Amino acid sequence: MEKVTPDGQELTxxxxxxxxxxxxxxxxxxxxxxxxxxxxxxxxxxLHIQINDLEEALLSIAFMKSIGIDQ
Length: 71
What we know:
about 10% strand, alpha+beta, elongated, 2 helices, two-stranded antiparallel sheet
């Protein structure tokens, strides 16, 4: 994870490993833009989840648990 300072300097804040999530804070924020950038430093497979799909999945799981159905 990187952030660019106002003077243009790139700061590496975190290096993520296999199966680590990036950008999760932005999912639950109403912020209009990403606060950090991510760059792959080796071959990478990424999964992009739309917020509406995530909300629907979470609500479905919560509903099923509320009526006693566990997955």
